[in-house]
């Protein structure tokens, strides 16, 4: 059948999938086919690059595409310090060489592997610790489906057995006690299966990792299929040596490679953490042999993958990973580096990593470093670090072209070429423009194999940066082929000078490869092209790199600024070599200074040498219209070669704010918008304003498409990230207002502001949104605030030690209405480390240039949680919120439970952890730097713990002091506040101490929100309330009546008879003290019995002495019984207690238990607990209760020990097992009478006896149900670790007896996670 169309089917615009024509890259390769990137090595600092991805196998010359793959994050590290040797075993009638893996599996090794030492290092790694997050989600979904299939078979079987029992025992039939017990057990089995599935979580795959030295290289073999047979697995070595990689399984299709460090102690399994890095590498350098139109920009180049995105932190970069990447760049001598990562910074061109890149990677090693500028536009000063804020780094913005619109985005209409709406804008806080060039910011290209798709559309400056990197690789390929030397400074200058102007605010152009090549060749002989001309404008406390006048006090009068220009040379290879000194001597530029705008004045000329020169610049913003953006440059031309373009530029940016004439309201009416159009206005927020109401009205004049608009509101403060006071709102123009005749669409927002600071209002129609629209905007400011604490979001401290705290409120902007309320929902505690350790890091990955060592300070904290399912946020204020702008190499941490199970990882931002179990927790924090002395200052760093409290605490607010004492409720409701009027309010401290969290201690803080305007939700506008918990009230003691009548003094006249009585009283008191001393010594001796070694002479002598002196002392008998129970074990394989003791010891236990029970009047004791005791007891009654409680414990111990011993004897004695079983049952029933509940799930030792009984009767369902309840309620502390492990072993035993193998395998894996056999996961 022939399909007829009205016009021919066009060819797909493949050239737009990964644009090359707009940047002249395609033209350049066509002209110079051998300058396609060959000879150039590009490092990709990202989420890792998949070595199996399409297009990343070979270069155009047939060389390996990826020459090294390194995980700089440590997320794939496996500790392989445990050394084992193989044994010969027989498995399935086959004689094999076996080692014991850390998982407990027997691992069959290949005897042909070369291993001269015959030593193997073993470790384990959970897949979900280092697999990509999206892959984990897919695997969990698929694996759960399979698990549920197996589970429902078990559930059906359990239900069938219960139905069969009911069929065999119809209603009304006689049922024995055993019959009923069987039914209860069958019901328990069905119930347990249902509950376990409800709480099921897939443990994933647990890999055994084996590392060994083959005489030449370290090798790694991984049990990827959990079969235990390693003979078919490849022994991998460091990727760069053999360039081998492997795939975990057909199910996940995740490729991996390995590296081995620390002489085999650390094995690094390298995978990608997301698709991002593979996509980035493909843009830069992919090579499709059969489809060259899909090639990356520089298909001839080779790749080094440096993974900096830590999968444990959702692929966030860390100081550790970036520093290791910088070290790798230097060691590998990479020509180019691309880093499509970044975020806001508080201080531009500053920080440990930024300095390392600028001074060492670029300035000394000569690596050209490109980085994404950020995706936080369209507002100004939204650049990300390091790409948009750092000297020496080429920052790349994102541009969209016609070919991309057609091939990648499938729009109904074409839209103008332009920078993407979201591409971050300069200048940085210090005035530098930040963005060096633009490049295409989208592509459809390769992704990792695990994603199950060959290619994917991604856009962002993350895509523009590798596009530009590929373009630079073409240039370097040509320069290298022609043996022409270059420096990063020469390349950056040529790129900027040759770019295509695209009508951009700051004259930043689109990268042009051919023009840049021509520029490089034309001016190749000029050595001043190998310099970076640094701009320094002194503005304490930091030097600025440009002129940026933003606030009203800066734009209301002319400004005179001194500008220092200093040429920066590449660093000498060796500090004393003086390689560049002759060039420094020769340098003398005769500069003509040119201003691009009349409101900027500058001298005409400047003679510039290597030591730099200063000159004055006068900027006059007074004649400029307020509310707008203005930009100019002071350009410095070499008068001997003006066609070279400016040697340097001094950027001048002015955002002159509008001053409100009516005090508090501003309107912008009928602003017109089309695709990608941006309107920005600047105004000074009225002094004293704290928040604003905003009303936005959208309309259209003709039939058009629905559109998306984007509003940025931003204020800037010194040394604070732009994100701190940035608000973003997205608006979709829905059907109706977009049809031309629809109703006007109105949206309202409320947001916090800082009084007196310039506010940028930036509204943009998204670049791909079609149609024309009109927008009107009104902003009205408010200013209700606390006097001397005007900024919204600041802290308010309330002292709980006082009856009330006074706050004075004022409204300096306009008449406002307040309605104060305070709710506290967080308990804050502060703890010090219990241990600190300061050591150098390893030599393989953490040695800085010039052989400088990196040191790590590890701090250990311990805390206890008394409730289940607690939300906790640990905080380290000294390190949080600092990444690129940190003075340290980095900070990281891990939260563990007491069994060393990892709860989660910390970075430099607060993280909320849900602590499911109560008990003890360990937090380890690590701070890294190359200065030992600096790290010593942090030895006692405080960790802040913020707990979410379930019961919120509301503080009452009063209008007058007397009301604090007279009223139990707030008396201050809505209150009008006239402009500039002041009002005092009073915050009452709760008198009832029970309102505080039970874990709150005096001095702890309760945190929450203090709302002044309770009826309005202000975005970012609440104060944080900090309430100090006061000391606990002391309950008054009963005071004895005064002696004698009316409180007279004691009569001191003593008669002879009275004196004799006093002497007798003194003698009796001394006897009492002697007895107490003897009892204390006796009790101390008993407590020390456990400290002696079993069957030691010292212990036996002490026992004999105590027996002679205190033959009937019950605590001594219980101590002896406990010692027998803890005697050396004969067998212990599964952790259960029925085989813990030998038969000989069991007989002794029975005898001693009976002896103990005879010493106690059980009838009298039972009667005591059967009676309701008086609440108001005297000292005598308290003493009696204490004695009886001790006796009850002794009774329970005796029956429990006897039952345990009888169980052992029953299992080991065949002749009288029935008699022993009967005696065991009798003993259990006697024990049960003294227990608070059956089954006794609050005490593991008693629970063990219950489980022994149920197992003997094959009632495994009852046993498992009780054990699960115990585990669910258990608090994990140092005291319960052993019991917890025993309980897990016992659970495995029960699952085996139930033949629920699918659950047993899951529990076996979870035990490896809950109690890691390798101990604590290391921090780095």
From TrEMBL:
The enzyme's E.C. designation: 3.4.14.10
Catalytic residues, chain numbering: 46 (charge relay system), 276 (charge relay system), 462 (charge relay system)
Region (Disordered): 1034-1069
GO cellular component: cytosol
Peptidase S8/S53 domain segment(s): 37-502
Tripeptidyl peptidase II C-terminal domain: residues covered: 1069-1124
Pfam family, one: TPPII_Ig-like-1
Tripeptidyl peptidase II second Ig-like domain boundaries: 812-999
An example Gene Ontology biological process: proteolysis
Coiled-coil ranges per UniProt: 1267-1301
Catalytic activity: Release of an N-terminal tripeptide from a polypeptide
One MF term in the entry's GO annotations: tripeptidyl-peptidase activity
Domain Tripeptidyl-peptidase II first Ig-like: 535-654
InterPro entries the record matches: Peptidase_S8/S53_dom (IPR000209), Peptidase_S8/S53_dom_sf (IPR036852), Peptidase_S8_Ser-AS (IPR023828), Peptidase_S8_subtilisin-like (IPR050131), Peptidase_S8_subtilisin-rel (IPR015500), TPP_II_domain (IPR034051), TPPII_C_art (IPR022232), TPPII_C_sf (IPR046939)
Ranges for domain Tripeptidyl-peptidase II galactose-binding: 673-771
Keywords of this entry: Aminopeptidase, Coiled coil, Hydrolase, Protease, Serine protease
Family membership noted in the UniProt record: Belongs to the peptidase S8 family.
The protein's name in its UniProt record: Tripeptidyl-peptidase 2
Organism: Diversispora epigaea
Organismal lineage: Eukaryota, Fungi, Fungi incertae sedis, Mucoromycota, Glomeromycotina
